[in-house]
Structure formats: C-alpha cells, structure tokens
Amino acid sequence: MSPSESEPEIVVSAAVALTVRTLAAKCGAPPETILHRLVSLGVAVEHSLRHGRRCSVPDGRSTVHVSASRTTNRPIVP
Predict the structure, then answer these.
(1) Cα–Cα distance for residue pair 65/59, rounded to 1 Å
(2) What radius of gyration do the chain's Cα atoms show?
(3) Fewer Cβ within 10 Å of end Cβ, the chain: N or C?
(4) Which residues face 57 on adjacent strands?
(5) Number of Cβ within a 10 Å radius of residue 9
(6) Distances from the Cα of 41 to the Cαs of 59, 74, 75, 78, in angstroms?
(7) What are the phi and psi torsion angles at 50 (to 5°)?
(8) Tens of pLDDT along 7-48?
(9) Would the pTM of this model clear 0.70, i.e. be above it?
(10) Which residues contact 64 (CB under 8 A, 6 or more apart)?
C-alpha cells in the first residue's frame, strides 16, 4: 500500500496489512480504499461513542449508519 503524493504515509502492522489485503481481494477494491473505509468507520464509531448519537459514513456506493454504545462485561464467576 503506497500513499499518494498528497496523503501522509500510514504505517500499519503486518497483521493489519494482511487483513486489508485480504479484504481488498474479497471486495475487488484497492487496499488503499479498504484502509480508508476502515479508518472512516473507526472514526464514526469513536464519534458516536463520544457524542452518543448515530453517524452516517458514505462509502462510495451507499451510506453506512453507525450507532455505537459501550457495555461492561461482567466477570465470569465459576
């Protein structure tokens, strides 16, 4: 994944790069597009958590609506 001239370089771990390449192959999209969509969704989740409201993220073909909430997991007691 090489950045364009106008965008800063994004450094990801080998595992993330492999996941992005795998998703790109399955979706038939360039890895840069997949990484951009994943980052956009992550930002929307963070925004939804902070502000407690639903966010919309256009992905080129449609719009993804994100509504995130936090829950606490109770410890499993044997």
Answers:
(1) 10
(2) 16
(3) C
(4) 64
(5) 7
(6) 9, 27, 29, 37
(7) -65, -40
(8) 677 788 999 899 999 999 999 999 998 988 888 888 899 999
(9) no
(10) 41, 44, 56, 57, 58
